[in-house]
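From the pipeline queue, job 12 of 40. The input is one protein chain; the requested action is below.

Action: predict structure.
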Amino acid sequence: MPIDIVYPLGSGSLWENNELRFSLRALEKNLKGYRNIYVVGVKPPWIQNVIHIPFPDQLVNNADGNIIRKVLRVCQEEDLSDDFLFINDDHFILKSIEASQIPPYHKGDLNKFPKGFFEQSFWRGRLWRTKNILQEKGFSTFHFDGHIPIVFNKHLYPEVMSQFDFEKNIGFTMKSLYGNVVYGTNAPRLQGEKVTIFKIMPYESVKRLTRGRQFAAVNNAGLKTGFKRWLYEEYPLPSSYETDIDTREGFFEVAGWIESDHNYEEGIRIFEKYGKSRKVKKFLTRDASTARRMKLEHSMKDLLNYL
């Protein structure tokens, strides 16, 4: 039976939720055996043909806790399929696969990770807390938070989360809680099925790294011109979940100027066409100067966040 898809969505997108736009394009192209799409959280103005459930982020410094609360909310929906695929807006399905057949991949036993690994970021500190609470409660301690979609069950999910005080302090990492309680040692280890783009990469590198992979994931550090160009090239056509006009032309025009010799007059013409700030437009239309050239270059790079 087809299963439903659940996307949690917060208000922190630096690209005005275009990550979700392309995640949906990839999903529509490559995912089989799915039914309804639920978006829980904010609602982008361009989205259509989804079931939207408004839900605010109320926990501070606890992103996973906010996501857990959103998934608990959608589990209350009577029409939600018993099993559903949980996916984030920065995850992309690159090859054909059946939704219900996506394995619950893990990245190894957290007890075998060096302690220094958990000290490298705030989120890894949350992962450290997750490992400790799982061990304390007698569960396995595999790392399921590998930026890959995962199948949840709407009846088991609330039961699992009720065992953990996930709203306290900085919380716990959600997928590792669920994965170790429900799947445990039966889950397969990730063996190169996914690529992560977590730093600035040129287009050709992104194209090479994603070739043959089942999944890709990106963060804000990797969501730059090279990765965006790959998205536009790989998924040029709007999905049935979009209402507005594709902005690909604007992206390539601005990116082309950034990669060229930065002709001032040409840059002014492009910024007049796609830029949003009237104040900046007025400032730039005066005679060229070092300050105005620097402002134009900065404004054009910033514009790529919105195209």
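Job complete. The first helix runs from residue 18 to 30.
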